[in-house]
Amino acid sequence: MLRNSYSAISMRRDEYQAKFGFALFIASLTMFFLASLAAYAIIRSSSGAPAISLGSFPLSLIASTISMFGVSFAMHKAVANVRRERQIPFRRWLITAAVIAIVFLVFQSLGLHALLDMHRLALEDGVTKQFGLMFFLVLVHALHVVGGISFLSGVLVRARHDAYDHEKHWTVDICALYWHFLDVVWIVMLGTFLLGR
């Protein structure tokens, strides 16, 4: 009995440390993305470049937003199911989230290619370097999505080995929070690009 209580205390401490470390990680990423978006806004406003028309903005970047919402929704459903000890729906929602995340990366790749083409054309015309900066920000976000897919894959592998239940699922919670964070960052970034037209 005493041994079980010690292991429960140790597990709670591990959970607390993991969540605290994750909070610090998210805080540092938030500062990085806010600083990057502020730099974009300053460069965009001081360049005197003509406004970007919505028609010339890569539609794949707008379409990828739907995929990002899909990943967040699937992760939300996965957490809800593991809390109720519904293992089969939990694993299905994790697989759904992984598939949608890959679809997001496909849209992002198309958008990055379009931004690179727009950047080359703008440089030839001597207009602005804003598309290059947009390319960089979208690429950094896509790299964080790749990290999220790796994290999600690890959670999925452990879920297939019954590592999570209604009492022990904080790793799934952290993974879902990371995807929600990426969702918010993407919406803010896309909004900054479109409002800066």
TrEMBL record:
**A GO BP annotation:** aerobic electron transport chain
Please list every transmembrane segment annotated in the UniProt record, as residue ranges: 20-43, 49-73, 93-111, 131-157, 177-196
Q: Which InterPro entries match?
A: Cyt_c/ubiquinol_Oxase_su3, Cyt_c_oxidase-like_su3, Cyt_c_oxidase_su3-like_sf, Cyt_c_oxidase_su3_a-hlx
**Pfam families from the UniProt entry:** COX3
UniProt KW Oxidoreductase keyword:
yes
Q: What is its EC number?
A: 1.9.3.1
Tell me what topology the record assigns in the membrane. Answer: Multi-pass membrane protein
Q: Which residues form the Heme-copper oxidase subunit III family profile domain?
A: 1-197
Top-level EC class = oxidoreductase
Write down the species.
Answer: Bremerella volcania
A GO molecular function held by the record? oxidoreductase activity
Indicate the family of this protein.
Answer: Belongs to the cytochrome c oxidase subunit 3 family.
The name under which this protein is listed is: Cytochrome c oxidase polypeptide I+III
Q: PANTHER family in the record, alphabetically?
A: CYTOCHROME C OXIDASE (PTHR11403:SF10), CYTOCHROME C OXIDASE SUBUNIT III (PTHR11403)
Q: Which UniProt keywords apply?
A: Membrane, Oxidoreductase, Transmembrane, Transmembrane helix
Record's GO cellular component terms: plasma membrane
Where does the protein end up?
Cell membrane; Membrane
Q: Which domain of life is it from?
A: Bacteria
